[in-house]
Amino acid sequence: MNSKQQASQSLRSLLNGGAYPPGSRLPPERDLMLRLGLSRRALRLGLEQLEAEGRLWRHVGKGTFVGTRPPERELGMSLITASTSPAELMDLCLWTEPTYARVAATRASRMDIDNLRYLLDKSAAARDAATWDIWDVRLHRAIAEATHNALALAVFDSLNAVREEGAWRRLRNDPTTAERFEELTLHHRQIVDAIARHDPSAAEAAMRRHLRSVQHALLLEDADGETEDGDDTPIDLLRNAFQEKAQ
After folding, report:
1. What topology is assigned to 3-70 in CATH?
2. Topology given in CATH for the domain delimited by 84-246
3. Number of neighbours of residue 15 by Cβ within 10 angstroms
4. Where is the composition biased (Polar residues) (predicted)?
């Protein structure tokens, strides 16, 4: 077995191990050389072989990614998702969504407000995780729509696209207890009420308070959600909340 074949086999074993799912970025070459016991030349030959097989793709200046190269329209978002973090996503939500709520309070039409109240009622009536998430996202998006600014809505959709990526789906406004469910529902109601009465300052403050609460909960989940091996494990954040709510 020559060096190229050995490197290719080592890389296949690495990918087959499941540590790097499709769309994830491989470690830098230096780390791979040490981990696989390969020379730089052999590693690059192996990377070229797996790229030819369609198992990897490389982007100059960004790194090597697992899977086939995505369509160009999806490439930018994939790279952003691979290079950012949950903390950065929450930062950007905090920088944008309170302003959306403030602007919505000055621009929302009667139809916008009726839609917000409809979505609020739907989220409050949720009985399972999937239903809660659908109406939660739709409510937040409707607030962005109520700004009547197409670019603001596009920014919201981009942030939500990042949140929909694989492990990022952990970033939900999901309640973990019945009390937390009631708290988040109250937050939503305060935001919608402020927009409905055209109170920009109150709408902005209510949205910021809501997102700060979500950010705090996520930090606690990150601290508590690690296994003994240090790996994050997805959990059903809503199961207990909806069981308690149904009682």
Report:
1. Arc Repressor Mutant, subunit A (1.10.10)
2. Four Helix Bundle (Hemerythrin (Met), subunit A) (1.20.120)
3. 18
4. 1-13
Residues 41-63 have pLDDT tens digits of 999 999 988 988 889 988 767 78
- Domain extents in the chain: 3-70, 84-246
pTM to 2 decimal places: 0.60
Instruction: Give the pairing of strands 63-66 and 56-59.
Output: antiparallel
Q: Quick one: 171 exposed, middle or buried, by C-beta within 10 A (0-12, 13-18, 19+)?
A: buried
Cβ neighbours of 131 (radius 10 Å) = 15
46's CB contacts (< 8 A; 6+ apart) are 4, 6, 7, 8, 10, 11, 38
